[in-house]
Amino acid sequence: MKRPSAARWKRLAGISLSGLVLIGLGAIALVRADRAFPPPLEAASDLSREVVDRNDQLLRAYTTPQGLWRLPMSLDAVDPDYINMLLAYEDRRFRDHWGVDPLALLRAAVQFVVNGGRIVSGGSTITMQVARLIEPRSERSLSAKLRQMVRALQIERRLSKDEILSLYLTLAPYGGNIEGVRAASLAWFGKEPRKLTLGQSALLVALPQAPEVRRPDRQHAQARQARDRVLRRMQESGLIPESEIARASASAVPRGRRAMPDLAAHTADTALKSMPEARVIKLTLEQTIQARLEDLARETAARLGPKQSLAMVLADGRNGEILASVGSTGHLDAGRAGAIDMSRAIRSPGSTLKPFIYGLAFEDALVDPATLIDDSPADFSGYRPRNFDRGFMGEVSVSEALQLSLNVPAVRLLEAVGPQRFLARLRRGGADLQLPPGGAPGLAIGLGGAGVSLRDLVQLYTAFINDGAARVLHDGFEDGVKTTFEHPVLDARANWRVSNILSGVDAPQGAPRIAIAYKTGTSYGYRDAWAVGFDGRHVLGVWVGRPDAAPLPGLSGLTTAAPLLFEAFARSDLAPVKFAAPPRGLVVRSRSQLPFALRKFAPGQDAAPLMAGVSLPPRIVYPPQGARVALTSRGAGQLTPLVIKLQGGAAPYRLIANGEPLAKASRRRVLNWTPDGAGASTLTVMDAEGRAASVSVFIDAD
């Protein structure tokens, strides 16, 4: 055999080198072209915004600016059988090819020729379908197909197989404005795609091929045929047993679209406005409870009169997290002004603030739960309150006065503790009552003569769960929200006394038997009905009325709002939590065990004119109101005594510390008291004529 000449070797080497150079230059050109004209993957970033609950369950979704329902989808959030069925039907070699499947293209070409130029299958891979979805073109031509193939190769260079599949699951069309398997599963079946049945999976595999032709709500027969065709293919491939195929083929195909999840509309809208850049916003709400309370609101709307609405707020009183918030009977209920979030509206609270008046009176040792108080007609400088039933009960215990929500006793106590001080205490719980324009705080604020929202009212009532310290209510989307307030609304002993009294109020007739404490309220003119209840952890508030504040004769907190409160507590299905035990050192006493001056409430005489032979009332000059006093520790938890200095009054004097009278009275105006530990304390001195003076101090231990 003759060997090639040296010249021929040189010629072959030159050709090979030129070929390699051309291949290299071609590769460089392709890479540069790929970089210069990348696939428009950013088109897939235009997604629906979502509001989810504390467990990442969908509460509400919003369409894209183009009006599409497009929810992102990951592989681990969809039923595995659906994925297997999709790949087996659409792209069996998806995991092996580089974006284009030559065998599928060859098969499509043969079918095209055999069927006389009719397209039987397009040979498109899932990657090519993604290319078409991110860069849609109306024409079906060879150039469009070639463009898809190039784009598919580009996509495969940039994304993993799982990422490409997730993109398909997000963008595939399922009829109308539904895109992506998650939106499709919610719209056609009302469930998340991880819970799909075999028949449902088959329908969702079939729909993207011809979404409008196979829409179940418009082309029901075609949708069933397409689903069954997918199931037969699965049977022929041996992927699914024949018995399962038969069962899936017998299952129903939906005839209409379901509404997308639409819970907590008012809260969700507020969250979206507060966080305009966030696509997914997580709230503290719990989807199951929210849905149950919204169902109750819709059911109740049928029993309410026209144009009446309601609102409910349920919170975890220990941390302030809102578990459910219903702003109306339905945000689309125009006849009831459903678009208005009545949980945030400022309305007259009726008698719902009375418990805090009694709490202040307990703090000041003005009364004890067993103290008698007069419920009879009274004139407070022209203000003459009457009870809801316009009757009077005479002498009742303070506990009974609160449980029966009597008006005159509450005003008597408010006059004693002072309206300004009462408002200041409510501000400690974040409730800044709205007074009438130009109006100074008067005694009417105790009976609803000021405005407050349902959310703020529920926030105030969290104090009864936390030894008098309210928790800040929050939905979860607020930035840097604090959970506690700096100062308590009530001291722990007074707080427990009020809670204990309210826990003894009888449930409304026919209401579920639930161990909760509650208070009702009805505003002036029958415009608002309220009920606020709590157990050892949860606080639930209910408001009923007309958003336009028109009067509703017959409306009342007891008959309208309270039954709804108990039903809402029952439907929330929360595990009951026991009330807190009495604070250390608190003693519950009968009236006969009380000091004489506490057996019946007598208003103070500070403002009475001085007369000959009448002494000035007692006054504590040290420590002053609000003082912080440092005492030296003696060890073993013992502190040095606190010196208390008095002026005025008639001896003997009795000191009452934190509601507990000292054993002996003293005729001296300098008293000694040894606290049992550091913390807030209320000191009251009562003289021989039953007149009293009080200060609140804080003891520090050095």
From TrEMBL:
PANTHER family: BINDING PROTEIN TRANSPEPTIDASE, PUTATIVE-RELATED, PENICILLIN-BINDING PROTEIN 1C. In the N-terminal section; belongs to the glycosyltransferase 51 family. In the C-terminal section; belongs to the transpeptidase family. It comes from the Bacteria. It is an enzyme of class 2 (transferase). It comes from Hoeflea algicola. Residues 66-235 form the Glycosyl transferase family domain. Gene3D superfamilies: Biosynthetic peptidoglycan transglycosylase-like, DD-peptidase/beta-lactamase superfamily. Residues 311-527 form the Penicillin-binding protein transpeptidase domain. SUPFAM superfamilies: beta-lactamase/transpeptidase-like, Lysozyme-like. Residues 617-697 form the Penicillin-binding C-terminal domain. InterPro entries: Beta-lactam/transpept-like, Glyco_trans_51, Glycosyltr_51/Transpeptidase, Lysozyme-like_dom_sf, PBP_1c, PBP_C, PBP_transglycosylase, PCN-bd_Tpept. It catalyses: [GlcNAc-(1->4)-Mur2Ac(oyl-L-Ala-gamma-D-Glu-L-Lys-D-Ala-D-Ala)](n)-di-trans,octa-cis-undecaprenyl diphosphate + beta-D-GlcNAc-(1->4)-Mur2Ac(oyl-L-Ala-gamma-D-Glu-L-Lys-D-Ala-D-Ala)-di-trans,octa-cis-undecaprenyl diphosphate = [GlcNAc-(1->4)-Mur2Ac(oyl-L-Ala-gamma-D-Glu-L-Lys-D-Ala-D-Ala)](n+1)-di-trans,octa-cis-undecaprenyl diphosphate + di-trans,octa-cis-undecaprenyl diphosphate + H(+). Its EC number is 2.4.99.28. Keywords: Carboxypeptidase, Glycosyltransferase, Hydrolase, Multifunctional enzyme, Protease, Transferase. Pathway: Cell wall biogenesis; peptidoglycan biosynthesis. This is peptidoglycan glycosyltransferase.
